[in-house]
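seq:
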Amino acid sequence: MAKPKPWSSPTPSDKSPLISRPSDRTSSVEMTSSAPPLQTAFLGVDVGTGSARAGLFDEDGRLLSTASSPIQIWKQGDCIEQSSTDIWHAICAAVKSACSLANITAEQVIGLGFAATCSLVAVDADGSPVTVSWSGDARRNVIVWMDHRAVSQAERINALKSPVLQYCGGGLSPEMQAPKVMLLWVKENLQESWSMAFRWMDLSDWLSYRATGDDTRSLCTTVCKWTYLGHAHMQQSDEKDSRDMETCGWDDEFWEEIGLGDLVEGHHAKIGRSVAFPGHPLGSGLTPDAAKARHLVELGLLAGTPVGTSLIDAHAGGVGVMESIPVTENQVDDADKDATCHRMVLVCGTSTCHMAVSREKLFIPGVWGPFWSAMIPEYWLTEGGQSATGALLDHIVETHVAAPHLANRAASQSISLYELLNKILESMAHELKVPFVAALTEDVHVLPDFHGNRSPVADPKSKGMVCGLTLDTSEKQLALLYLATVQGIAYGTRHIVEHCNSHGHKINTLLACGGLSKNPLYIQQHADIVGCPIILPRESESVLLGASILGAVAARKYSGLHDAMRALNAAGQVVHPSKDPRVKKYHDAKYQIFRELYGLQLANRSIMSQALDRKVKA
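struct:
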């Protein structure tokens, strides 16, 4: 009989889905040495929209090194695709570079975790790519998270009003796997691919599978994106329970109802029959072929290195930052067992995710969740978000006529374009004698829904709006537009926080990570507009730290994920809201305009629909 490919696990036996505990299985690296103990490190891998990154951390959670490698992306209209083969090659390159930079050997890496965008991967029974592209290009087997081709499928599913949807903010977004991942779209549009696909996997789950051969899925991906009801296990188990639970959180009626009943066949073999808490050790660790393959797609690590069950990248950021509390506040929090529930993490990158946890499940219209154990085991996760934040700022700046000249100026000063824009704003505030920088935008207002509104209005058809444009095309005008866009994004965060708090949360502190969190103007505007202090982590690479924490848990260095977070998270700078009452008054006024812009858009939509004799959808 032909031997299966090393990244393909055998076809699962005919049994009910399993939920595995972090202590179910062990994986170890066999090493013998008479030399003094070497420094050990945890390795985190993060696959973003444009690159794969690797980071090594010591046992205090301090960053030792990072490296990245670009990944290819194809864009055509609403269709955005990648290649899992290309992604794996990029990961291998990044891992080897990170180890080289830190002078860390394979023997010193004692645990590995993966995080990735919530993109979809299609593979056949041999683990080979299955195209999800109109082009038919077999390399293009990944539907990227920001792909919006399945809007109509989402609308049809939402119209059914299945009880499952109450755990998705009342409805599925085009960015959620059930409609987008073509589960439905591919079935309706790419029949051959639908027939060939043997596994549909979230990207982070596929990475773990590629590394270990273990097809166990993460509660993070399945619950957040695949409508898996993880709380079906809530009364029967906890994170430290070593027993397997032979039960199922899939709602078969839902899959039948939306026209995907064939995914129920074989006890859900194509979408996952075994799930685990994040950090649970998978299989026997890295397979020999994944660790040191005969070809040029190896990680350069030891076979058997423990690999933890994966996380979506934003959720890894949450794991890497949620417990980054200053020491004095930590002492107070020790007496408050629910202190973690008063925080919201902003993972600010191409898009922004807003994540908060609670002990009780809270249903919030227009906000994803509640998701049981999807980030921190045994907590309910609420997940808001903005589909375009860093991507929107890039779009606003790079499409402006003044951008090329400004970019040259920034390069000549060896600073980023955004650092130069921040300097220009400070200079303008001084020249115009305004009381504070934010006041420069009194006549410019931005609704940042250029890629729809993920939450809290959950309207994928929402459009971006800019009020206050003139014929001015100067660098100063670009700076104002940039500042107004930052403020618009921050008003969106305020809207999400207020909406969550009005439905049971008690959020009073924000923690921020990701690329945008390194922009001081961006963070200060958010603190002033939301009215909460914002804690920045000591280590800037929170998503990589969160991924590495999965490896630390898999290596059994900690009893569970939350314990590992408390040990390896650490606070850095704390940014407080302005104490100037004029700042609050100003932003309250602009926030009112921000809210009215969406109402105006709805009214305009209705007027035009009536003019074209179309029914207006609420």
